[in-house]
Each structure stands twice: as structure tokens, then as C-alpha cells.
From TrEMBL, chains A, B, C:
Domain of life: Bacteria
InterPro entries, sorted: Ammonium/urea_transptr, NH4_transpt_AmtB-like_dom, RhesusRHD
Phylogenetic lineage: Bacteria, Bacillati, Actinomycetota, Actinomycetes, Micrococcales
Listed name of the protein: Ammonium transporter
Membrane topology: Multi-pass membrane protein
Transmembrane region(s): 31-48, 55-74, 86-105, 112-135, 141-162, 174-193, 213-231, 238-258, 264-285, 297-317, 323-344
A GO molecular-function annotation: ammonium channel activity
Start and end residues of each Ammonium transporter AmtB-like domain: 30-349
Length: 371, 371, 371
């Protein structure tokens, strides 16, 4: 597997201090936490009142396509064996797409998500090859570039290819309970985040990675709250619950390299810039491009992903390859996503955007009994 | 402990490659995941609007009786010591009953669940003895037969013994948030499922068991969606969120034996037949028997449990004992459940079926503040 | 770290039977479970309809202050290195404050929680020093005294210092979905509890600690149900979901010392007395002191914490130091909390108590779409 080339070296050296089988079983639980996070991303996106089941359904459909196809591709074409590293690679691929669909949720029919899943796998395998085989020395143990940046820019590529402006006029109402699910998802994603960024690290880097990740995330909580309070005197829960996760996005590329203090600062910068993106960049981009990033993916994953990707350069740990990785992922993501967007354009559109009624017998079910 | 006799052999051979204590601590986390699943089963059943707290309460009451009584029985009568295997056995017993009560939830008073818990333990210990001591060579590492089939047919035995037709006329309304809890429960159950089916496996089978389980489950997601879309053009969330778990039910008996491709196919067959059971068998059975399987337990656990139980025979890995196990569990489950149902018949009935108001000060609490 | 002085001895002796690194990685997952519980405590307190997001926000703000400050203090002033024990110490500190704020939630402005976090850290470090350095031979592996008692009495100290009676007249309405979140939180806290009480135990005590904890908790479920049914004929979910956790609170101090039967009895006593505290002590205290313990912290953590702290004495395992620890924690908690309460008194008060509208754009968001 390409993406793991540098990580595998680590793991093999770790095998001298810890039984291989034991190390693998530890990865079982970190891997499972990543599957857990994949599902929670759906609940993070559940705030649009009329679309709450549609988000869950779309998440499951892309999981059901990306996960087995990724495994099939690597075992068939690259002689990979099915081990814990391959399973982690497959769920990383799936979670990347679950993040990416947040950009264009509601812009395509439910059944089109099966097509999206199939088309995503080669895109993702290409970016893995680009980052870890074509380039040499890219630091991204925790997926700031591979997962978050690629998700954001591939998703933006899709929406720019699709260019379906009708959705902009749809109301996106929320309800109390759906926003409470977002709080739950955000807070549990924060808890599980260390397993995501250390999933492919050798055992001896896991505890320090946990410390760095939680320090980055609590810094994001603090800075997000302070900025929202200072500028708005009110806490928009749909900005707060998202931006507090930006520390986790930004720490990914240097989780095994930064000091605790550096990690806290990376979280502070990531969370701060994510909050400002939600407040200012979001509206500007919407006006410029004429499309709407339904779940603010660019603000949480795109911008903080860039910050995280560049962090190792600022820390003096990485050089030119890291910069090429960041710029290349942005461009490749947009281009490959755009192509997929054009393909999706020819498929049938949803009759009514952002509405569970497109897929579910929602009207009857909801009419029954209020609250 | 009877049920673990063949598994224990496995574990002892594992001890040669991995420290016993380390293997046991890995089981701690898989065991904990099963306790997590026990609670999530309650939320999977939470969709009936007027019964959402009642389901949680009933789950806790049967947990509070089955778990300690199972441990008490094995330590008192069979000289078992309290170790991780016994704890897993006890939570397997408890989760089996939590599944089983889904058949007759709302048909009995809340307090009767304490009686159900007490009466269930000998039933469950008998089926353990039947499967793993009386029979020789039964393959069921992940509980397709012991947990899922027995839960379904024991539960059906109870409802046939009870025969309380009044409940059929009760409306079972849903609300948006309660169905969203069902989505959450279903998606997290999917994530945790590998820990359930590998809980009693030796360390060297855990990673491949994880791969097989997730492959079976994503196949169920796919087939459930395709069938519902093809036949109905709409996705009933209360069929979808249930049937997608059937792959996990069906993979149980061969999780340590099937190849990845076979696992995917087992999930496809399990999920497909579960979906068809929800769409067609459910109504037919209801008409024939005159009783209503409140939570569709037969469709998710009964039928896919049979598929899973027979899978090792189809794969050429098991023989006559496996067939006897499947048929025997069906018959024994129905008979033992029927006896318990007759006993429950003499206890006071709930004044109003499927209503939290029977147990909770629900009217005041709900009246306060809508949404 | 002071609190771990006796525990560390245990761990060092454990290192002879299990690789240090392996033991540390096992603690990774138990530690993560404690972070999970920290978030769930917020959802346990989410039942007040107009305050459900405010609880989550306050939880995150105290986490964002206590966690890094505790680490900063120990690494700066006590030359601690950042390892898994220090991370567990830090999340224990944070969860203690998350429990404590339940006493005075809604009595102070949201921004004041940042101040509370800063002021709490020295209080908590003092009680750690008192229990594990000043005293000798205090048994409290699972935090009955350090976490639960200190949280309750420090929180009560704060509210007595604040003395803001206005809040007593605020209505505290609930809604169905917010109470369902409480059920979810309570049931998952029960599942994760063994990781909390065994987080600092050596590997060889973890499995027996798990057995003892679950036995204590199922006993609490049973006794809470029986008492509520016997005395009230109805199950108040906001008493039931709380009191069933009292077994976990009470088992903390003797989780590594009690027999399974003793553990079950400790859970029975803890759950029973907690239930009675909710039914009778709560109202009496409110009348006597004129303040309202918003989340019933005294009933779940204070009284069962005392029971748990005294249990080792009853079991004949501890002596005078244990009694001094219990009484001292009560007094020190009240005094230190009282001082913080006086400081908070000079800060601006919330314009409207127990209302998300104080911090969130709640009115618009909730108005949009019912249910």
C-alpha cells in the first residue's frame, strides 16, 4: 500500500520492542474508533431539519461502496493482503468521502451516492500514490493532507462541476434535537480523534500523539469561543461545534513530531482560522462561485487542512516536498472532483433538494406524533 | 462454562504466541464493546414514540437480572471463576434477552421484566449446554445460533404463550428524533459488531474476523438499499436501519472460517433475505399467528440467524451437528419461550400497551415544552 | 504526581509480568473512555429544555481550561513528564469539574466557566496532595473521594458562596428528546465506568475491577427501580437515570479490593441511598440552604461518594486515614468552593437563568421548524 510506505518502516522498527501481533491488536481498537468516527461525521451533518435521515443514508451508501472496492483494488492489482493496515486504509478512504459529500449533499439524488462511491476510489488511490510514492518525505501521519484537504477540494471540484444553483434557494431549517445530535457528534469526534491521527503510527508514538491531539483540540475550543464571543456576542452552535474540531484537522501532519506546546499552538491557529473562515470566507466564496458548500467542509477541513499540511514546514521538519504535497492535493482534488461532478451532472437530479422526502416515506412518518 | 469449551482450546493454543494476560486485556475492550451494544439495542428499538423510555427501562431491568444471575449460577453450580470469559458469557446472555424482549415489548408490564430476566437464565444455560456440550462440532463463534436465533425463537415462544391480541390494535407512531436515535444505534452497532463476533476468538483470528464482519455488513447495506429502491422506490428507515445489520447476524457462525469474499456474500444473502422478511414474511406471520412481533426480531435475528447457522454447512466446513444445532435451537427456543409466556400470562397486564405512561410520569413531562 | 504515588508502586511491580509499553497502551483505551465519559456527563445534564446546548458549551469550556492547565502545572512545577498517567490525571481533574458545575449550572454566565476552570485547578491539586501525600494509606483507586465527593462538595461550596436565589424560581421544563439523551448518556456511562475506576490500576486488577464495577451498577439499577416503584408507583426518569449510576460512584474506593458479592452489595447500598437522597434529602437541603443543586449532584456524587469512601473501612481494609480523607474532602471541598463562589459573585450574572438564549442565537434557530 502506497500511503503506508513510510509508516510501515516505523512499524517494522517497532516490532523489535513489541510483539507484532500485540501491536496489530492495538491497531484493531484504533481502527474501530475510525469506523466510529465515520458514522459520527454523518451526525455532525445532521442539522438540516428536513435532511437528517438523508445524511445518514448517504454516509452508509458511500461506506458500502468505497470500503470493499478499496480493498478489492489493492488486493487485486497490488497484491496487498488483508491486514489491519489495509482495513485502516480502506476506512480512511471511506471517511474522506463521507467528509467530501458534505460539500454537495442535497445536490444529487440518493442513488447517485453509489456512483460517487465507485468514482471516488480511483481518485483517492491516485492521491495516495501522489503523496507517498511520487513524492518523497511528505509528513502526514494523521491525514491533514490526505484526508481533510483532499476531501474538501475533491468535494469542491464536484460541486463546481455539478453547478446546481437551485439548491441555494432551499431553506435549511434546523430543529433543537437535530442540533443536539451535532453537539453529540462533535464532542465524541473530539474524544476519538487521537485514534484517527495515531492509527498508522508505531506503538511508541501513540501516547504522545494522544497528548498532542487533545492539546490541539482544547486550544481550538478556547479560540473558537473567544472569537465568536468577541466578534458576535453569541455562539452559533453550527460554527462552534465545527470549528472546535479544526485543531484535530491541523495537528494531523505533525502529530508525531510536534511538542505539546507546538501542538496547542497549532490547534489555536487551526481553530482560529477555521472560525474566521466560517464567519467571513464562507460567504465570500459563496458569492464568488455561486455555489453553496452545504456543510461548511471548506471551513473545517480545507483551510485547517492547509494549515496542518504546512505546519511541518513552519516547524522546520519538512521541505519542498511538503509544499508540493499541499499545493498538489489542492489542485488534483479540484480537478478529479470536477470530472466526477461533470459525470454526475448527467444523472437524474433530486426532485426536491435537501429533503428526506426524496428518499423516505417522511411525510407520513413525521405527521404522526409531534415532538 | 459450556459454551466456551471449543473456544477455550483455541485460546490456550494462543497463549503460546501471546502472553495470557495480554490476550485477556484485549478481551476487556471487546467485552466492553458488547456491553455498549447491549445498550444500543435499546435505542434501536426506540422508534415507537410513546414507548421510547419504556424500551430503555426494560433493557436495564433485564440486564440487572440476567447478568448477575448468570454469573451466580456458573460460579455456584459449575465452579466457574469470574474471569473475562465468564463476563462475556454473562453479557451475551443479557444481550440475547434484550433482543428477545423486542418480540413482546409492550405486551407485559414493566415490572414483569424482572421475572422475565430470572426465567431466562436457565433457558439460556440449557441452550448453551445443548449447543456446545450435548452436540459436538457446532460452529458458532459469533453467536448466529446461540444469540440471534435463540433470541428470536425464545421471544416468539413467549409471545405465542402470552397471546395478547389487544396490542395489535395499538397505534405505533414514530417521531423524527426517535427515528434518528434508531439511525444512531444502527450505525454504531455496525461499528462495534466485530468485537461481538470476535469476543471469544483467540487473538490471531481477531483482525481477519474484523475484516469479514465489516465486509458482510457493507454488503447488507448495499443489498437492503437496492431491494427497497427496486421494489418500493422509497426507503423505510425502520426496515433499512434493521436489515443492514443482518450481515452481522449471518456472519457470526463462520466469522473465523469464511474468506473475505464469502463473508461479503454471506452479508449480501443475509441482508437481502432480512429485507424480504420485513417486506413480506412479517405480514404473513402476523396474519397466520395473530400476534405482532413488535420490533421485527424475527426478520433481523431469526431468519438471518438461520442463514448464518447454515452457512458453515454450505461452505463445507460443518456437518450434521450444525444442522441439528439450527433446528434444535429453533424448537427449544419456541418451547422454552412458550413456557415462560404461559407463566407471564398470569401476571398483571399493562393497563395501556406501548405507552410510557404505564411506568413514567410521562404526561406531565411531555406536556411541558414542545420539540 | 501526588495522587498516583501508591498506584505507581503497583504499576512498577506489574511491569515485571507485562511489558511496560503494552501496559501503557492498554491505559490509552481506558483513558480515552474517560474522555468519552467527560462528554457524556454533559448529555446526562441535558434534560432542561431551554438549557441543553448551554450544558454542552460549559462542559467544553471547562475541559479547555482544566486539561491543559493541569498538565502545565505538573510539568512546570513538579517536573512531571507527559505520559499516560499524567493525561489520566488531567482528564480526571476535568471530569471532576464537569460534575461539579452541575451544582451551579445556570447560576453564572457562560464566559464565567473559563474563570471557573482556571480557579479549579489549584483546588484540585490541593485535594490530590491532601489525599495521597499528606495522608498515608487512603484507598481510592476509582475516585469515590477524589472525583465524586470533591466534585459535589466543591460545587456546593461555590453555590453557597454565590447564593443567587433568583434561579430557584426559573422553570426547568424538559422535552422528550432531551430526556432520551439523558437515557443514552446514563446507559453509556454505565458501560464505560469500568475504564474510569480501573484507569490507574495495574493490568492484573483490570478484569476483576470490571466484574466488580458492573456488578455494583446492576445492583443500583435493581434497587433504584424497586424503591421508586414501591414508594411512588412511577419511575421518574430524572431520578432513575441518575441513581442507577451511584453503584459506580460507590465502588470506586474499593474496586480493586472488594469481592464480587461485596461489590454488588456496595452498589445496592449506593443506589438505594442515592434514590432516597433524590426523593427526600434533595428537597430538605433546598429548603434549609435556600439554593438549588441544579443537577442533583449531591444525590448522585456527594452521598454515594461518602458511602464509597467509607466502604473500605466497613470491609476492614482501611483505618483512620480513610475516615480523615472522607471528612477532610467534604470540608476542604466546601471551603475552597466557597472561596471560588465569592470570586464569581463579583462577575456579571446571566441576564436570564437556565436559558440557552443567553449564549446562543436560540430563538431564531428554534423557531424554524418544530419537532
Amino acid at each position: 500500500m502506497h500511503f503506508a510506505s513510510d509508516t510501515l518502516t516505523h512499524l517494522h522498527s517497532a516490532a523489535t520492542t513489541m510483539n507484532d501481533q500485540v501491536a496489530e491488536l492495538f491497531q484493531y481498537h484504533r481502527a474501530q474508533d475510525v469506523f466510529f468516527m465515520l458514522m459520527l461525521v454523518a451526525f455532525l451533518m445532521m442539522f438540516i431539519r428536513r435532511y437528517e435521515w438523508g445524511v445518514a443514508l448517504a454516509t452508509l451508501l458511500v461506506f458500502a461502496t468505497v470500503f470493499p472496492l478499496y480493498i478489492l483494488a489493492y488486493t487485486t492489482f497490488f497484491d496487498a493482503e488483508i491486514n489491519i493496515e489495509l482495513l485502516i486504509g480502506a476506512v480512511f478512504a471511506a471517511i474522506t468521502l463521507v467528509i467530501a459529500i458534505g460539500v454537495f449533499l442535497g445536490h444529487i439524488s440518493t442513488i447517485a451516492f453509489l456512483v460517487v462511491g465507485v468514482l471516488f476510489v480511483p481518485s483517492y488511490m491516485f492521491i495516495e500514490w501522489f503523496l507517498f510514492t511520487a513524492l518523497d518525505g511528505v509528513l502526514d501521519a494523521g491525514g491533514s493532507i490526505l484526508v481533510h484537504m483532499f476531501a474538501a477540494y475533491w468535494g469542491w471540484g464536484v460541486i463546481l462541476g455539478l453547478r446546481n444553483k437551485a439548491v441555494n434557494d432551499e431553506p435549511a431549517n434546523t430543529s433543537v434535537h437535530s442540533v443536539s445530535f451535532v453537539w453529540l457528534a462533535s464532542m465524541l469526534l473530539m474524544v476519538l480523534w487521537p485514534s484517527f491521527v495515531t492509527a498508522l503510527l508505531p506503538p511508541e508514538d501513540v501516547i504522545s500523539g494522544m497528548a498532542n491531539t487533545y492539546l490541539a483540540m482544547v486550544a481550538s475550543v478556547l479560540v473558537t469561543y473567544v472569537i465568536l464571543w468577541a466578534l458576535k456576542r453569541t455562539i452559533d452552535p453550527l460554527v462552534f461545534t465545527y470549528a472546535i474540531l479544526a485543531g484535530g484537522v491541523a495537528i494531523g501532519a505533525s502529530v508525531d513530531l510536534a511538542t505539546p506546546l507546538q501542538s496547542w499552538i497549532i490547534g489555536l491557529v487551526g481553530g482560529g482560522i477555521s472560525t474566521l473562515s466560517f464567519l467571513f470566507l464562507d460567504g465570500w466564496l459563496r458569492k464568488k462561485t455561486g455555489v453553496w458548500d452545504t456543510m461548511g467542509v471548506h471551513n473545517l477541513h480545507g483551510v485547517p487542512g492547509i494549515i496542518g499540511g504546512l505546519a511541518p514546514i513552519v516547524l522546520g521538519l519538512a521541505g519542498g516536498a511538503q509544499a508540493i504535497a499541499v499545493v498538489g492535493t489542492l489542485v488534483i482534488g479540484l480537478v478529479l472532483g470536477f470530472i466526477v461532478g461533470l459525470i454526475l451532472k448527467v444523472m437524474p437530479k433530486p426532485t426536491k433538494m435537501l429533503d428526506d422526502a426524496e428518499a423516505f416515506p417522511a411525510v407520513e412518518m413525521r405527521a404522526t406524533d409531534p415532538a
